[in-house]
Amino acid sequence: AYTYGGTISGNGNVILNQSGTLTLTAAHTYAGTTFLTSGVLKIGGGDNRLPITTTLNLGSGGVFDLNGRS
To answer: Which of 1, 24, 37, 57 fits 17 for a cystine, CB–CB 3.0-4.6 Å?
Structure first.
């Protein structure tokens, strides 16, 4: 498991393609798509961790964990 507390910004995409859990604890402002092909992407530390304009592309091996949020 890995927790990332920095900010992801810019025009690129975010791709998670590995086993294990990545927890994002800061608000991010990147403009690209979020690709989750395998592993767990967990939201931690508050609301609005992913940019509201991102498209979430969830593959069959990926898990998006809202950590009790909606």
So the answer is: 37
